[in-house]
Amino acid sequence: MAGRALGGNGVGDAGSDSLIRVSVVIPAFNAARTLDRAARSALAQTMRSVEVIIVDDGSDDDTFACALRLANEDDRVVPIRLTENVGPGRARNSAIDVARGEWIAVLDADDTYSVERLERLTSSAAEHGADVFADNLEVWWDDHPVGSEIGYDDLILSTLSPLTLTDFLEFSSPTRPDRSIGYVKPIFRKAFLDLHQLRYAEDIRCGEDWLFYAGALLRGARFCFTPDSYYRYTISSVSITQSRVRVVENVESLMTATARLEEDILAAGNDGTEAALTLLTKRRRSLSGIRRRQRMKRLILDRPALRSMVTTLKRSA
Predict the structure, then answer these.
(1) Is the dihedral of CA 136, 140, 143, 144 positive or negative?
(2) What confidence category does residue 147 fall into, taking pLDDT thresholds of 50, 70 and 90?
(3) Using an 8 Å Cβ cutoff, are 224 and 163 in contact?
(4) Domains (range + CATH), the chain
(5) Is 286 within 8 Å of 174 (Cβ atoms)?
(6) 160 Cβ partners below 8 Å, 6+ apart?
């Protein structure tokens, strides 16, 4: 087999790393339907010096078989199989720990890159002396582009480079995905992550990326941004249904991430602490409101009499 298949603990022979510029990390759980397209978009980059690390996060479909097929075709593919579903944080960490590239780039298993993305971002990152560099997201509904995800004016986005932690918090709305920089998919300088021992939180399954980005800024990362869109973020009826089902659990994870960042900011005692804590208080209140509404909605729907009343009212409206 051409690729390096690593076992459940993610340990294997790293091989030569002298030519690898970017390690693309793809966490994949039951992603057999979309993984091939995602991985091939990374392999088709104009920058050829990449490795694509696919982490099967305990899937019970053909995700790992797909990863193995890709590895047989292209020796830049590194398949890793985890024996149980541990969530996106640990899956990404498993890949980062064995990554050989100068840069780490995350790609979700149902998304894709434009063909020049990594060349553009690494070139811009070098030009700006960045530790973290992000582009905007091009939103696709299944196979059709529908616009940009981060809907701020390009001029505003341009002035946010480099980002401060306060900027990041101010422009990361928990209730408006189209107004949240926290949804971007930056590239990270691997040396920076290793120097600061920075990894994704493994005990939360929503907001772990937002917390990771904020953690980089808290540790002094130079975080730069372009309003250009090279990451294709895919929305489908399946993903929308799944997010609606998990909404209460997702809010709880976001609350946990917010509380953890508050603790980290207080411990660091950097300049701008008061402003950052004020923004986190605002974020926590927004999340608390969402949690209250969702709990009430679940309470109503769990009671047959109330559910019947709501249905009747909707029909009469």
Answers:
(1) negative
(2) low
(3) yes
(4) 1-112 (3.90.550.10)
(5) yes
(6) 167, 171, 181, 225
